[in-house]
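Pipeline run #58 for the internal structure catalog. This entry was flagged by the ingest filter as a single-chain record with no existing model, so it goes straight to prediction. Upstream metadata was stripped on purpose; only the residue string is passed forward. Reviewer on rotation: M.T. Logging verbosity set to normal.
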Amino acid sequence: MYLHLGQNTVVPMRTILGIFDLDNTTGSYLTRQFLKEAEENGRVVSVSEELPKSFVLCEEQGVSTVYLSQLSPATLLKRAEGQVSDWLNQAREDTHGRTS
C-alpha cells in the first residue's frame, strides 16, 4: 500500500514513521533543528512548489527522508485510513468470498 502525498509523489505506507502538522510542530526548537539538519543532509523532498502544510517522516533501510507536502495532515490521514480500509475489505473478500 502506498500513500499519495501530492503531485506525483507516493511513499510505501510501511515506511511512514509519522505525519506532522508544520504549523504545530515548528514551534518546537527540536523540530526546527531536526528539519534543518535533514535539509542540510539532503534528506528533505518538497512535494510541491506550494506552501507546505505538513511533513511526512519516512524511513527505509535505515535512511530517513522528510517529505514536505501541501496537503494537510488530516487529508493525509484520511488517505492512509482509506488505504487500510480498502486492504481490510479486500482481505475479507479473499478469505470469505464476500464482504462482511
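catalog note: The chain is about 40% helix and 30% strand.
catalog note: Helices lie at 22-25, 29-40, 73-96.
status: ready for reviewer M.T.
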